Amino acid sequence: MRGSAGFLLCSLLLLLAPRCTEVAAQDVQPDPKTPCANWMGGAPGYPGHNGLPGRDGKDGKDGAKGEKGEEGLQGPKGDQGEIGAPGREGPRGFPGYPGQKGEKGEGAFVYRSAFSVGLKERAPHPNVPIRFSKIFYNEQSHYDASTGKFLCSIPGTYYFAYHLTVYLTDVKVSLYKKDKAVIFTYDQFQTNNVDQASGSVLLHLSSGDEVWLQVYGEGDNNGVYADNINDSTFMGFLLYPDPE
């Protein structure tokens, strides 16, 4: 009896199998609680192939600005660029304050040569240099009182002048340069009177040239005079030296 019942049950199941298969085809995932699911389930299939990559999505919106990063290391110095064109001249500025006074510099060499002398004796001898022995100025010692002559030590242009008191007789004097009379001065004496005779000249002198004053002619023309209230003077000085 049991065998007949089992046979009938199996036959019933075979009749129902096509129905279960149709239901399985309709349902992608059969209900696990059904008897057909447990009895007719097949082996798991192999994984399918990877699909093609999808298309790029749309660009997203910019995010919020990030925090400032740390300063990087200084790079190497670049090559010097070409000199640009000069710019326009700017406006003139205000005058600056005066600077401090600088140190005293070395002065240029100054050439000096000068003398000024007077007569002490009366009636000097004619035809010899008049010796003016009263010294007013002779710092460079270029005038020799013992000879009455000026000796040129600095070549250049000189100025000479004389102012003589005339008394008792006429005066005729000459200014000499290197044994040659350059200028003459004559004064005729007036009785019971004191007169003056003078002269001046510019001369170019070379080193070693001598200049002096002397009575010209005989003794009748040596009325050059000097006392405690009358002077007869002779002077000269370098105007400018020759260029080196």
Can you give the mean pLDDT? 83
Uncertain runs are 20-27
Query: What level of helicity do the residues show?
Result: 10-25%
CATH class category of the domain at 116-241: Mainly Beta
Q: Mind describing the biggest β-sheet? A: 10 strands, antiparallel
Please tally the β strands and state the result: 10
Large-scale geometry: rod-shaped
Radius of gyration: 69 Å
- What's the number of helices? 2
Query: Beta-strand level of the residues, as a percent range?
Result: 25-35%
Class per helix and strand makeup: alpha+beta
InterPro entries: C1q_dom, Collagen, Collagen/C1q_domain, Tumour_necrosis_fac-like_dom
Domain C1q: 108-244
Keywords: Collagen, Hydroxylation, Secreted, Signal
Pfam families: C1q, Collagen
